[in-house]
Specification:
The protein has a single domain, classed as NADP-dependent oxidoreductase domain (TIM Barrel). The protein is built from twelve helices and 13 strands. Strands 3-4-5-8-9-10-11-12 form an eight-stranded parallel beta barrel, surrounded by five helices. It has helices at 39-51, 67-78, 110-124, 144-156, 170-177, 200-207, 228-232, 250-260, 262-268, 272-281, 296-302, 312-325, and strands at residues 3-7, 14-16, 18-21, 56-58, 86-91, 93-94, 105-106, 129-134, 160-166, 184-186, 210-214, 288-292, 343-345. It is globular. It has 346 residues and is of the alpha/beta class.
């Protein structure tokens, strides 16, 4: 299947407009897990994504406390080298093996970055890493300049092809840029979490830094079948049970916005999920959306987002629905005149 691609900033990497997010396949038993997950299902789901044309997988060391990277590594070993997707991962969240349910610390000390990179290379079984990213800003007092210099060394040593950051604000991005160009930013971005469209996404567009939007379906809320009752059925260790957007009154507003997407989905002959993801891809500066799945059929439910182009009337209708429901915060409508171009590839 042919999917459109966009250049990831100035990195030289061309990626499909949707990528596979491997957060949930880390399974349960840690602070931000999604509950039990069968590894065979995870591998089958990633295979389905690749069959449908996706050419990149995004994971992180902390997902499942190393387990997500191990499962991705298992898939990579089963593939012919020509079939291998681009692999993106992250560092900077350090966990305590004795207390897996405790939240990981945000550590970007140079020695920790180097150690984590080696561990990720081993778990994934590849070298170099196609994109290595800082997961969150540091909380230990390490300056971002010292952290980013350690990342630059990894690039110079050939262990990393492209270097990016996640959850960084404008100030941190600018400080990294003084040392070495940031190839990508990975921010939370959805119809509900829209704040980065105000400053960070325009900055990235101006500086040719790629943007990989994570949680474009708001971790399941912006899908066709999610309900209030579904929250009560989540696994006991599913992080969403305690998340703000899954609690009232936010949940009611969010689901009302989701329901407002149904007429648009019907007009395009697609799913609400695909519409929600396509909305993030309509913003100038956004390179791709990271979309998770735990079963192969879930990929089939949102893959159309890669090729779905929302009309100006659709975007106006969505902006009106945001205002009416009061869901989330941030800008409500991209400028269609400045929408990024995409090219077709296999």
């Amino acid at each position: 299947m042919t999917l459109p691609t966009r250049p990831l900033g100035k990195s030289g990497l061309n990626i499909t407009t949707v990528g596979f997010g491997a957060w949930a396949i880390g399974g349960g038993g840690w602070a931000f897990g999604w509950g039990p997950q069968d590894d065979a299902d995870s591998v089958a789901t990633m295979r389905r994504a690749l069959e449908l044309g996706i050419n990149w997988i995004d994971t992180a060391a902390v997902y499942g406390l190393g387990h997500s990277e191990e499962v991705v590594g298992r898939l990579l070993r089963e593939l012919h080298p020509r079939e291998r997707p681009l692999v993106f991962t992250k560092c900077g969240l350090v966990w305590d093996e004795r207390h897996p349910m405790a939240e990981a610390r945000r550590v970007l000390k140079p020695e920790s970055i180097r150690k984590e990179a080696e561990a990720s290379l081993r778990r994934l079984g590849i070298e170099p890493l196609d994109l290595y990213q800082f997961h969150w800003p540091d909380e230990t007092g390490t300056t971002v300049e010292h952290s980013w210099e350690a990342m630059v060394r990894l690039v110079e040593q050939g262990k990393v092809r492209a270097a990016g950051v996640s959850n960084f604000d404008l100030g941190l991005l600018a400080r990294c840029e003084e040392i070495r160009h940031a190839d990508s930013l990975q921010p939370p971005f959805s119809l509900i979490r829209r704040d980065v469209a105000e400053r960070e996404i325009p900055w990235c567009a101006e500086h040719r830094t790629g943007v990989l939007a994570y949680s474009p379906m708001q971790s399941g809320i912006l899908t066709d079948g999610f309900t209030v009752e579904r929250v009560t059925q989540l696994a006991p260790d599913d992080w969403r049970r305690r998340a703000r957007e899954f609690q009232q009154p936010n949940l009611g507003k969010n689901l009302a916005l989701r329901d407002a997407l149904r007429p648009i989905a019907r007009r395009h002959g697609t799913t609400v999920s695909a519409v929600a993801i396509a909305w993030t891809l309509a913003w100038p500066g956004v390179t791709g959306a990271i979309v998770g799945a735990r079963r192969p059929e879930q990929v089939d439910g949102w893959i159309r987002a890669a090729t779905l182009r929302l009309a100006p009337a659709d975007l106006e209708e969505i902006a009106a629905a945001i205002a009416r429901t009061g869901a989330g915060s941030g800008p409500t409508r991209p400028s269609p005149a400045r929408a990024p171009r995409a090219q077709a590839t296999r």
